Amino acid sequence: MRIDNSLQRRVFATFGAFTLLLCLIYTAICALAAYVIEDQLLDNLLADEASHIARQYRASGELPSPRLPYIRLYSDSNPAPADIRSALPAGADRAEWFSDTDRHFHLRRLHLDDRTSPILAAEVSRLLTVSHQAGGLLWLVFFALLATSAMALWAAYRISSRTIAPVIALAGEVESQQTGGAPLSLSATGTHDEIGFLARTLETTFNQLKLALQRESEFTRDASHELRTAISITRNTLALSRQRELSQREKNELHNTVEGMEHTVSALLALARAESIERQPLELRPLLEERILAQHRRIAEMQFRVRLDLADQYRTCGNRHLAALLIDNLLNNAMRHAAHPELHIYAAGETLVFENPVAETFDTDRSFLPRQKGKQSDGLGQGLFLVRRILAALEWDSSVDCADGFFRCVIKPANSTV
Description:
alpha+beta, Beta-Lactamase, Heat Shock Protein 90, five-stranded mixed β-sheet, 10 helices, 11 strands, rod-shaped
């Protein structure tokens, strides 16, 4: 199966890119949090010192010296350097300042009273732990990013594989199915999720389409098989009508032939469309006599003997048109393939038997398969295959036997009574 744009690759790329982006975002957040915590810690130290100076000033009225060696207090008596005053202009209460000598200051203006506003300056360069360890932390963050990225990509691959695997398996099973093969059976139909629902829907739809194509193909062969003789009779009769006026008997035969073609097409369409076959009580002997008489000219020309041993009370349940089509095919099969021109139709208990002599035995298991015919046959090999499908539509049981020089088709009609 060649797929130019794999769904699994797209899911992996999307999920992997998303997880990598999350890794980068959280790495940046961690680095930012380290700098913020460091800056807040230094600001808390300066705030604590400012509170101490304010308490001492209120208690003694004099400015005390800072307790920490890296903190300086600048007042009117001890003016701050110009660069510190410029870093904390009038009106500003706090600021950060980086000097040209890589020194870092935290500045805060104290409002002790209306006349006294000293500046507290903390030189915190040696306290910048995060900045001093930036190189090592960078490598730590880099390797942590690599490790988490590798884990994220592995997780993305595993998740995408497990998520898309049922879809890939489903696509492979559908692709491996042949148009004329067995019905599609998907392994995911038993799962109770979206994949199972999709598999069941695909299986049902695919099998219905396959069955529709099969019925269309069978209808084409059936129509060719069933209508050839009727069309030939109609064509010959119409050819005679150009030379002379048709007799009433010929007109009746033409009418019956056209009517039979109409019934045949209706029956074949019912089979092809898998329609519900209308069933009704059916007396088989009158129907058998009718179908035998419908072919009396051909029977007479071939001097074919049909012996009918069936009680008048032999009744069953079925569709008349399909049953007539079934009888026609069995009669045609006997007239085409019987070793001697004779056919015996009789009842054996509740079964109906069509028996004709054959020159040699053959494999009866293959006789009902499509396009199976004898070496001397000029047909399409469709007759007995159509017989089997009609029997299935009528829901009649059947079996075939070829022994002792006779071919027998044994039919068990539904709800038959004698």
